[in-house]
Amino acid sequence: MKQKVCLDESILINKWTRRPFSHRYHQLSEKRKRLPIWESKKHFISEFGRNQVVILVSPSESGKNTQIGQYILEEIKVDENVKTLTACTQPRKIAELSRQVAEEMDVVLGEEVGYRTWFEDCTSGTTILGYLSDCVL
């Protein structure tokens, strides 16, 4: 049986961990594309690049809490000399939300994706996407 070869390594290698993406990542990636927010991804990125402030209004369960931070990170060029942190504030369920995002990004919770509340800090020096309670921000 012939093995498929993909010439675009960015599809195969996670830019944050420099490891191959897992089978679970690919499953979740297909699920993410079915979220209502997916249809607005290009428009959001365009507006985000042109404006200092973007206000996004979207119904509950549309994917905005889990996806917007990831969309922003996808646009960041990885540079080992520059530390970037994207912070998302959430009023509740911060740990649960960050676990889901870490799984979708195929990274370790507390490393590349983390969360911080008044009582708990699950971040590290390698955290690039942090979910924070309003009081921590």
Protein architecture, described:
By secondary structure, this protein is of the alpha/beta class. It is 35% helix and 10% strand. It has helices at residues 9-12, 23-32, 41-50, 64-75, 94-105, and strands at 86-89, 113-116, 121-122, 129-132. A four-stranded mixed β-sheet has the order 1-4-2-3, covered by helices on one side. The longest helix has 12 residues, at 64-75. It is globular. Residues 1-5 have low confidence and may be disordered.
Summarize the entry for a quick read.
The protein is 35% helix and 10% strand. With 137 residues, it is an alpha/beta fold. Mean pLDDT is 86; it is low at 1-5.
Keywords:
about 140 residues; disordered N terminus; alpha/beta; 5 helices; 4 strands
Write the layout of secondary structure elements.
Blueprint: H1 9-12, H2 23-32, H3 41-50, H4 64-75, E1 86-89, H5 94-105, E2 113-116, E3 121-122, E4 129-132
Parallel strand pairs: 1-4, 2-4
Antiparallel strand pairs: 2-3
Helix pairs in contact: 4-5
Please tally the helical runs, counting DSSP H or I stretches of 4 or more residues: 5
Which strand order does the major sheet show? 1-4-2-3
Shape: globular
Helical proportion, percent range: 25-40%
Number of strands: 4
Portion of residues in beta strands equals 5-15%
Average pLDDT, all residues: 86
Low-confidence stretches: 1-5
The major beta sheet can be summarized as: 4 strands, mixed
